[in-house]
Design a protein that fits this description.
alpha+beta; 5 helices; 19% strand; elongated
Length: 226
């Protein structure tokens, strides 16, 4: 686009690439919007402690998540996590656990949606392989186990909603499980599911058996036949 110069030129300056970059950076910084100030720690704080015993640690882990109350006394009152601590007699994992909890606590205090942490922790896999919890549920790593505790806590305080089967699915699942248990009671092991059950890709529990010609999970009701 041509620009008509209507005044006398009294000086000029050549704009370098560096000047252009600085101008662009300055403009971008002016458009930055701060979502909110980090949350301040109140005098009194309430928390919950969860005991986690895994086959990969000699001693149990004690995971404490402290919450603060937002908008107290209003219809919008709710709890949200503020900090997390993990303690154990086992010092093998001490260094990375301290680092993980400090980063997670910083995310909690920053505010906003923190539920993404659950998915991030669940996606961590131990290169040496995971383990099965009591009940036959597979856990890919110790970090994922911590993610399960965080998920349960967020469900308890109302920040996450647990996906549950509807009444029809629940009734059908209970009927199918009772039917199978009655016919194959001698095949049930300590996990309360049939021996040789396959791992369910939906709920990560070793509870998938062949029923009515279709692979069906006795834990969550997931079926390959729909």
């Amino acid at each position: 686009m041509a620009i008509k110069i209507e005044k006398k030129i009294v000086g000029y300056n050549v704009v370098s690439e560096e000047d252009k970059a600085n101008a662009i950076a300055q403009k971008e910084n002016q458009n930055v919007v701060q979502l909110g100030e980090p949350l301040g720690r109140p005098e009194k704080i309430t928390g919950s402690t969860y005991k986690v015993k895994t086959p990969v640690t000699e001693h149990a882990l004690y995971i404490t998540i402290n919450d603060i109350i937002m908008n107290e006394g209003t219809p919008q009152e709710h709890r949200r996590p503020f900090e997390i601590f993990i303690n154990s007699k086992n010092m093998d994992h001490f260094q990375w656990i301290v680092g993980l909890t400090r980063v997670m606590s910083a995310v909690f205090r920053k505010g906003g949606d923190v539920t993404f942490l659950v998915e991030e922790l669940h996606s961590v896999f131990d290169p040496n392989g995971g383990y099965f919890k009591k009940g036959g549920k597979y856990v890919p790593s110790l970090v994922a186990e911590i993610g399960e505790v965080v998920e349960q806590h967020l469900i308890d305080i109302g920040m996450l909603r647990k996906a549950l089967p509807d009444e029809h699915q629940k009734k059908l699942m209970e009927e199918k499980r009772a039917e199978y248990m009655e016919k194959h009671s001698e095949e049930i092991d300590s996990t309360e599911y049939p021996k040789g059950s396959q791992l369910c890709s939906k709920c990560q529990t070793k509870a998938v058996i062949m029923m009515d010609g279709c692979l069906t999970c006795l834990s969550c009701g997931d079926s390959k036949c729909g």
